[in-house]
Design goal:
Layout: H1 6-42, H2 45-51, H3 65-97, H4 104-135, H5 152-184
Amino acid sequence: MNPPSKTTRDTERLKRVSRIMVLACTVLTIMLPLIVAAFWWFSETESLFTNARLATSSIRHPIATWQRIAGALINELPVLMLVAGIWQARRCFKLFVAGEFFSGEVVACLRWFAVWATLSAVVGILECTAIATMLTWSYPVGERQFMVALGTDQFILLFVAGMVWLMARVIAQGKALAEENATFI
C-alpha cells in the first residue's frame, strides 16, 4: 500500500483546520452579540464613556436604562453585520471541509464576507457618533457631545475586507482560466 501523497496530506490538513474554523465561526456568531449586550448591561458608566471615546470627566450622572438599551442596539448594528460576514466565512470553511476549494460558491462566500465586513466598518464609524450623542443627550445645551471617531479597528477591517475581496477575485479569475484551458485539451 502506498503512503498518501503530500497533496493528499495537505488537503486533509486543510479540511481539519477548516473544521476548526467552522466551529470558531459558529461560536463567534453566537458570542459576539451576547458580549456586546452584556457589556452594555453590566458595565459601569465610566467604562461605557471610555468605550465611546468620551472623557470620564464629562459624566454628569449615571446613564439611564434607556441609554443602556439604546447603546447596546446601536453597538449591535456593526457587530451583527460582522456576524453576517463571519457566517459567510463559516459557509466557505464548510465548503473547504467538503473538498471544494475553488468553486463559484467559495468565491461568493468570500465576496459576501468582504461586503459585510466593509459595511460593518462603515457603520462602526457612524456608531461612535451615535453613541456619544446618545450618552450626552440629557445634558444641557452646550455640554452635549457630537463626535466622529476613526479608529484603527475600522481601517483594519476595511483592509481585511479588501484583501478577501481581492482573493475572491483571484480565485474567480483562476477558475475562469482553468475552465478556458480545459477547452483546449
